[in-house]
């Protein structure tokens, strides 16, 4: 289940890029976990034939980082080299055979899993790591989601979440049925009381029955694939591991990202703000997120920027009053301040993020106010000492 640090590691790995009419930002953070087991990939242009196709993926590792890293580096290659996939895109038709394309993607996942299993670390049984995967292929005509496990993707369109992938959990009826047919059980919502996801790449100790195909094992590497036609009102896609979704709902993430896009076009900055917000909301997991901005995405707005400035001015006003009324400042920290502010009405806080999304702003203001207050108290003490001496 993973061990935790005494304090979270908040340094972030970020990346940005653009092409094919898309822009993307990436951020990942270790957080409270002892190890960083997430990985991600973002590729604009897949090969000479598919320069106008793009591929994105978030891979949430467990029991080690090796499977997630291998998937990030290789999954797209297994997909585009699959024979069914190549047949589907051979003629570059704007309306390819979607059944064939889906089969190619599913086969790519299964072939990667099988190939990985034969590599030395996994073949020996030494490496017991596994990874979920949520991926997105963007073609000129379609968004193609593939999900295996409980990482999740959402597509936002015209102000709403148009589509979200479905998590694969052992307690879900169809997943539980497969697990029990394979000789396992679901206890405390985990396979045999241990693994919290029912589909994943790797995890070969749960794929040992020689009489069953790969899709029928205790843990299945089979993804669910979904096609969505592209439209002018498509705004953005968010792919993220469960460290995000554990503390924020689909609509909250969508609303938060949409509001931030009206303040900045720096997608990696928005990704970092999302990670910090989730950390403040209580996420204890590694966190990784990719935001893919589409032509219909909200644009930076002067009005939104002014409203944000008003919100932060109101926060500063309330923090000033808080510091002024406290005689003992030793206990006045960010947590104390946020608890106090959460009991008050502050209009215009980022939707979905709330006061938690302003933790860094609160910290900056609070540090300045406390330093100023302490200096004032020091000056008062110095003056009173001089009077006594006289």
TrEMBL record:
Region described as Disordered: 1-21
Domain of life: Eukaryota
Start and end residues of each PPM-type phosphatase domain: 23-294
UniProt entry keywords in alphabetical sequence: Cytoplasm, Hydrolase, Lipoprotein, Magnesium, Manganese, Membrane, Metal-binding, Myristate, Phosphoprotein, Protein phosphatase
Subcellular location: Cytoplasm, Cytosol; Membrane
Example of a GO MF term: magnesium ion binding
Membrane-protein topology: Lipid-anchor
Comp. bias intervals (Basic and acidic residues): 1-15
Cofactors named for this entry: Mg(2+); Mn(2+)
Family: Belongs to the PP2C family.
Record PANTHER family: PROTEIN PHOSPHATASE
Protein name (record): PPM-type phosphatase domain-containing protein
Organism: Exaiptasia diaphana
């Amino acid at each position: 289940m993973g061990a935790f640090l005494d304090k979270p590691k908040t340094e972030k790995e970020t990346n940005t890029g653009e092409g094919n009419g898309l822009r993307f930002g990436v951020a990942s953070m270790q957080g409270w976990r002892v190890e960083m087991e997430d990985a991600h990939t973002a590729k604009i242009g897949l090969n000479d034939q598919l320069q106008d196709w793009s591929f994105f993926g978030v891979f949430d590792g467990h029991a080690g980082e090796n499977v997630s890293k291998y998937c990030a580096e290789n999954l797209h290659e297994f997909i585009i080299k699959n024979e069914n996939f190549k047949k589907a895109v051979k003629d570059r038709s704007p309306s390819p055979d979607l059944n064939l394309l889906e089969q190619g993607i599913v086969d790519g996942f299964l072939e990667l899993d099988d190939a990985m299993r034969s590599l030395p670390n996994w073949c020996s049984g030494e490496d017991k790591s596994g990874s979920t995967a949520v991926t997105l292929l963007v073609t000129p005509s379609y968004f193609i989601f593939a999900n295996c496990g409980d990482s999740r993707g959402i597509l936002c369109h015209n102000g709403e979440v148009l589509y979200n992938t479905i998590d694969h959990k052992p307690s879900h009826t169809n997943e539980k049925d497969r697990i029990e047919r394979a000789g396992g059980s679901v206890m405390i919502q985990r396979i045999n009381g241990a693994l919290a996801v029912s589909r994943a790449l790797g995890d070969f100790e749960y794929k040992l029955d020689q009489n069953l195909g790969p899709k029928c094992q205790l843990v299945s590497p089979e993804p669910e694939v979904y096609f969505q036609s592209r439209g002018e009102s498509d705004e953005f896609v968010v792919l993220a591991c469960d460290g995000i979704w554990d503390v924020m709902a689909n609509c909250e993430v969508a609303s938060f990202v949409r509001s931030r896009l009206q303040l900045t076009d720096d997608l990696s900055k928005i990704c970092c703000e999302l990670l910090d917000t989730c950390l403040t909301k209580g996420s204890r997991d590694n966190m990784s997120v990719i935001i893919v901005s589409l032509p219909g995405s909200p644009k930076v707005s002067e009005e939104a920027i002014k409203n944000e400035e008003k919100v932060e001015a109101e926060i500063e006003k309330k923090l000033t009053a808080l510091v002024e009324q406290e005689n003992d400042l030793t206990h006045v920290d960010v947590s104390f301040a946020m608890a106090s502010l959460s009991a008050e009405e502050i209009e215009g806080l980022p939707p979905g993020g709330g006061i938690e999304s302003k933790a860094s702003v609160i910290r900056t203001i609070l540090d300045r106010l406390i330093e100023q207050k302490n200096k004032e108290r020091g000056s008062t003490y110095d003056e009173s000492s001089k009077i006594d001496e006289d």
